Amino acid sequence: MTQATAPTSGEGVERPSPVAIRDLPRFEKRPEGWSDHDFIAHWRAQGPAAVDRFGIVTLFGHDDLWRAVDPRFTRQVGIEAMQMQGRTEGAVYDFFDRSLLFANDARHRARRGPLARAFAHPLMNALRGEIAGQMRDLVRGLKGREVDFGAEVSGQLAARMIASVLGLPEADIPHFTQVVYGASRGLSFRSKEVLDEADVDMAELVAYAARLLDDRCARPREDFLTEFLAKVEGADLSEDEIRTQVATVVLGGADTTRMALASGFAQILSRPAQWAALKADPEGLKVSAAAECLRFDPVVGSIPRLAIEDFEIAGVAIPRGTYMAASLLGALRDPAVYARPEVFDIARDDHPKLHPVFGAGAHRCLGEALARAELEEALAVLAQEAPDAELVGAPPVLRGLGGTRGLPETRIRL
Ligand code: HEM
Q1: Is 289 near ligand 1, meaning CB less than 6 Å away?
Q2: pLDDT, tens digit, 9 for 90 and up, residues 18-27
């Protein structure tokens, strides 16, 4: 991308004038065999942004992520994401309409406020012992077997930990797990058939949340849901909104953590020297190893936003009404931030304090502390309990440029 220069006011300093969207490189169909990372790297080499045939501007830089979520210039993309898929009703549509994830400004604050403190670092760190216990239980039960790791190990851990935060009865966990992963499929762009199926599971998930909340109303306990009910008392939230925030927490924490652990552990196993290093010092390396698993092949592809004002980002003039995608695939391999970004290294020490995979601004992930605690403890347990673990085949490559990405089957012998 070439940028014309125009003099700025006074001082004689020349500042490049912003590039118009029509002059950005245009995404073309990718050649056979290219991964999402190959695709983003190719376009990043042409400039800091590119545009697709729908006019959506993708930004590749780490710092652009923060500017892209600046509420002076942009807002979260909400129900439009459903409408773009031709959906105007159904349980997934209602979820988009009522969840904090897709709300803005005062509505977003009203929905997020009652949840915010429940997921704070000290509370989530207190769960580390339980996470390690659940993970040991899972790994010991499967020792010596070849498993579909995403379904049988990491998916189970993520679901069990959310079930534990919500105080679910043990007997409900298998049904709960199936409903959660079914409903999760409604959160990314999918075919009509998949969305129809996700509608059924989403309706059941929200109904399940309603039953749990009714139970805590009748029988308060010292737990997350009872506290949540106390916080929403008198708040400006409908019954449907209250249930939907519980469903959002469940959905936000399930597939993301499931995929990050499966894909990250597979990357480690495919590098024997790094696997040996983790086994030699699990406590010393678990934090940087988890951060690298989250970076290398991120489970969320991009953060969508809509411009509400004319503004400039990455040297591009963005008119109001433009849809943008701040690419996490791009941000997490920005050479201005990460040395040799294409190299997977569990000892990497250049992770920014605010890991971009959890987004930025008002919607930054509420479950970050829980997700990190789960990944770190799970990796340490794997290093201790499954030292002979082996990856069967090549490491999985996650698929998708936006939303929650897809994890192919990940076969591991424990
Ligand atoms: C690997 C793990 C995870 C990743 C990569 C991740 C990533 C993200 C990202 C990128 C966002 C912001 C989306 C946006 O701005 O449009 C987000 C929001 C959110 N996440 Fe996570 N997440 C993870 C785990 C979790 C967990 C464990 C929970 C809950 C227990 C959770 C709950 C949420 C919620 C409720 C929001 C909405 C926040 C809001 O809109 O204010 N996430 N997450």
Answers
A1: no
A2: 999 999 999 9
